[in-house]
Amino acid sequence: MTFSPELEARFTKLLASYPPGRTRSAVVPMLLYAQDEVGAVTQEVVEEVARRCSVTPLQVDEVIGYYSMLHRKPLGKYHVQVCTNIACQALGGEQLFEHACRALRLGNKEVSSDGLISLEEVECIGACSWAPAIQINYDFHHFVTPERFDQLISALRDGSYGRKAS
Amino acid sequence: MRYNDPSPLEVRVISQRFDLPDPASIDTYLANEGYVAIRKVLGMTPEAIIEELKTSSLRGRGGAGFPTGMKWSFVPRNTGKPTYIICNSDESEPGTCKDRLLMENDPHQLIEGMLIAGWTIKSNKGYIFIRGEYRYLIDIVDRAIAEAYERGYLGKNILGSGWDFDVYTHTGAGAYECGEESALLESLEGKRGVPRLKPPFPAVVGAFQSPTILNNCETFSSVPVIFRNGGAWYAELGTPKNGGTRLVCVSGHVNKPGVYELPMGFPIMRIIHEVCGGMRNGKKLKAVIPGGSSSPVLRADECDIPYDFDSLAKAKTMAGSGGIVVLDEDTDIVAVALRTMKFYAHESCGWCIPCREGTTWLKKILTRFHEGGGLPSDIDLIGELAGNMLGRTFCALGDAAAMPTGGFITKFRGEFEEYLNRQSAPEPAAPELVSIA
Questions:
Q1: Least crowded by CB within 10 Å, which of A5, B69, B202, B207?
Q2: In this complex, do A107 and B431 lie within 8 Å of one another by their Cβ atoms?
Q3: b (16+ CB within 10 A) / e for B6-31
Q4: Chain A contact for B1, CB < 8 A?
């Protein structure tokens, strides 16, 4: 299995960054970076990561269920993550998540039928002082009202969504 | 960039470069006293460095508030094993969003702090463990590391000292538990992030089974200024045994929530009313969660205290990670207690039973309570369950779940009793659906 030249370069650097004989350390980062490119942690990815890190596929398998960002099935092209933890909750994060469910016609951890958008209620994402906050893939959006949410979703749908965090 | 306006009451020591143009670049850092401290430190003995840190009374900014100088002094020297410097940037305590700003706006300050730690124990390798959700920060920090190599602040023979030091970033992939130091080390080794039995502590057996200095991102970021201006100068900024400044992350029902750098011991009520512009919509203060979601809640009448580790410990709570959640009179404390427990139940690694079962049962009972089906005996049951978790778990996550729950029950018992008297149940929450993990 081969990845893009950028990712291959990243993996080469990654494997060299740990002490000798400690390539197992690269398993979690490699899984996450590979997932970002492939779309999911497929069986092929598991076996490839195991081979590159010189561990058994079982040693790769056992970490996948532990880390909440690793997924065996593809997420939407845009993964919309709404924080409802206490700081966001205080400023309407739970209502925002309910609004998101209705607006997207999706439940928690569901993917739209066209594969464009998936929705997840997430734990604290580190934007507490600028709540309510969401992440779309890795982009942060702060002070998100239901109206702002709808604008962001329209931008995802019509392709005008920029990669600029706000 | 910063996401909120600064306050004139701030004392900008570790956030002094945040508002400069291109704050993360090495040129900005070098033009503003950057890498001055490491030049000084390279002429100092480990004993002198640790003494200076002790004088500064810097305490760990990750949550426990352990004296940093003492932590560094525990690392055994001359064991023949390699040693490591690990930065915990797995910021995930609900209410906390400061390490994000430190890495975004001043990554070189963090690198310099790690360099000083590295020189102290003659380590040759450091890792910055960054939570997976902070991907953009990995890019920023990687760029800063590359710049530091180009200018000779990392790599071989640093500044002609004959000493080599490398720094790498390492991403997490979504697990609060990995903020616990021994679980972080497991994760760094490519395993599930379950905690290790302590002792031995990471200072003796840490990363890759070797002696390790492991500190929070803000702790390392506070180190360079201590060596530029002196430990005594730094200590003077705060209160006795609580040296310096810290980034407090204020969230919730205030007019100007934000991350502000304040001297240790700054009064909580002044944070709310002067730094953050008072309560939103003129509402009354009900409660403050003072140090991230694992710290027991303070009632409004208990908040007239200074914000430092010892004052909050005296009030039977903790300054923790610096996340202050301000709650107004309209806040439903039962809903907050439930949301807190949902979090800990989700994040419990499942390794030890009191935490795994305790958080799950507390979540179930609190859910029943919140949905209107609570029993009068549930209030004591919640308190008892939480009490039975305290001190009986492998790591602090069990305590982190139990402590705030006990706090909510004792301080706001009336609100729980009120729930029992309600006739109609509140609307059920958004549907729980299948997992695609």
A1: A5
A2: yes
A3: bbeebbebbbbbbeeeebbbbebbee
A4: no
